[in-house]
Amino acid sequence: MSLRPALGAAALLLLAALPVVPAAADPGESVTVxxxxxxxxxxxxTLSGTYRCLAGKGPVFVxxxxxxxxxxxxxxxxxxxxxxxxxxxxWQNSGKPSPDALKAxxxxxxxxxxxxxxxxxLPLPYFHATRTQDITLTAS
Length: 140
Hints:
By secondary structure, this protein is mainly beta. It contains 1 helix and 8 strands. It has one helix spanning 3-17, and strands at 30-31, 36-39, 45-52, 60-67, 75-81, 89-95, 105-119, 122-139. It comes from Streptomyces griseoviridis.
């Protein structure tokens, strides 16, 4: 096992053990996913959409993952910094999952706008907005 998956697994276990700050109920915060994503010949997937969030105290990110054929197997497709100023902004994430993991066709995307809120020694996740949506991956 390479070091990168081992570190990722350790980080997920650490996050799973932390208490989670409740999800936002503010109707002014949202995230959308464009109905079409792109998959390049080398397997790189690009997803995009919009988000809106209100001011935060820590760094905020838009993360995305995609699945095909089974919800149990999800592939992280990058993450990008978000600006929480109440205005609507575009987001775009790209990532290259395992070779031949995804292909053109129907896919399901999960997108989250998440802030790392300073709480004592460790920042805790605060979810501004989440969305699950079916899209179409097109060859590009």
